[in-house]
Amino acid sequence: MPRAMKIRGHAKGAPQRIGQGGGVRPSRRTDCCRHRRLAIGGPNANLPKRLSPVAISRRGFLAAGVGLAVFRGSHGAANEELVAGIEKVVVRRGRDGQGPTWFHPKACVVPTETGPLAFMTLQPIAGSDYFGPVHWMTSADSGKTWTEPRPVPPLGWVKQSDGSDEGVCDVVPEWHPQTKTVLALGHNVFYSGPRFSSNQPPRRPMYAVWRDGRWGERRKLAWDDPRGASIYTNGCGQRVVLPHGDILMALSFTSENARPRAVAGALCSFDGQTLAVKQVGGEIRHPAGRGLLEPSLVRFRDRFLMTLRAEDQRGYVCASDDGLNWTPKQAWAWDDGEPLVLSTTQQHWLPHSEALWLVYTRRDASNVNVIRWRSPLWMAQVDVNTLRLRRDTERVVLPLVGDGVKDPDRVAIMGNFHVTTVSPSESWVTVGEWQPKNGLRGDLLLARIRWNRPNLMAGTFGSDGNGRSPTRAI
């Protein structure tokens, strides 16, 4: 049983303690959401079911309302026609100090006999790269109410012989329709005392499998290649489940901490218990900083695309026919060729059968003093022929709250987010915001992106990403 972990930013400044066994003590408040409206200004944003695998009683759900903010686009016909609106929902409150600050909220959808089940992993944050044990929660009503977060036993802290703790972070859960399981994949991380260990032992992908309401054991994705001697990881990455059940992902890796990381596509088998590397493709390299990080994949119109975090004020994109052999990377840029100015932050794909979007953060006049410009979250449509962003389709997904110029320490940052295709009519962006210089406080947010026309890539809940699942949709 690991040492408890202190979480700052709660009522009256009292720390809350989390550990492997007991989870987080819930606050007296049980309303995870409340109705409210939010006004946004700025040149780029115009304003105008059931549980079958897990037996949870109705009392186990939190009474909920919806924190509402609807943003209507005015930039471009494609944006107007497809995006009906975006609604901001506060899933769990942390800004007010009533509960822990939840981080890394990532969701998938599990089809059940009685309806779709939204399934989310998340973990508390108590400092820079310092996370508590992984938890999970579910919703049987399309994210309106959620169960209380519960620990994922195999993805907790494990005491090491030197006194440090091995945790797991950056977990992404995905439904695997061929085996009817959820594969929750992240990577290990080591803590010495109440902080991220400066000298990290080798870091590897770690995963656990959820099936019929039960979690399996903690496992490691093995890759016996000296190129990943120091680290190889798919943390925070979007991956693709292929029709026959194999999983395509991208690994970021290096043999030595001092060397920049490369990225390569990795084809893996998965039988519902064991994830195994079958083939690794050609390397994509970048010399700046730590190299290329947090790669995310999407399959769009029979081509694979990869977006890459980098540390030279750019992000990068490349394409592939097979997910293993990639075109030379190119910097993300607007359709006129002007590059996006980013600051070492991940990007993720938001796919619709008629168009593809990218979700990202960037430098803007409103956030010049915000840490890594990690607020607001934006989205823009990708020109899939040129792999550039259409400037006239850019809009805010989740807004900057506060003053990013004069009072940036009170602006909650949103650099670790995830995109989920929920149904033909709706996609989600989930994020745990936090204020590193203001008590670490932040809310767990969900942006509902509603489509005017059905997203055939979703087809139904629990599809394989190509709309091939027999389960019924909302």
Overview of this protein structure:
The chain is mainly β and 474 residues long. It has a single domain (5-451), classed as Neuraminidase, CATH 2.120.10.10. It has one helix and 32 strands. It has one helix at residues 77-82, and strands spanning 5-7, 16-18, 70-71, 83-92, 102-112, 115-127, 130-131, 135-139, 150-151, 158-159, 165-176, 181-191, 205-211, 214-215, 219-220, 231-233, 240-241, 247-254, 262-270, 275-280, 293-300, 303-309, 315-320, 330-331, 348-352, 355-360, 377-383, 388-389, 395-398, 417-423, 426-432, 444-451. Strands 10, 11, 12, 13, 14 and 15 form a six-stranded antiparallel β-sheet that branches. The protein has a five-stranded antiparallel β-sheet with strand order 3-4-32-31-30. A hairpin with a 2-residue loop joins β30 (417-423) and β31 (426-432). The longest helix has 6 residues, at 77-82. The radius of gyration is 21 Å and the shape is globular.
Q: Number of domains in the coordinates?
A: 1
Largest sheet geometry: 6 strands, antiparallel
Mean pLDDT: 84
CATH architecture: 6 Propeller
CATH fold naming: Neuraminidase
- CA-based shape: globular
- Straight-line distance between termini: 41 Å
Query: From the helix content, strand content and strand pairing, which structural class follows?
Result: mainly beta
* The top level CATH class name: Mainly Beta
| Number of E strands | 32
Number of helices: 1
Helix content: under 10%
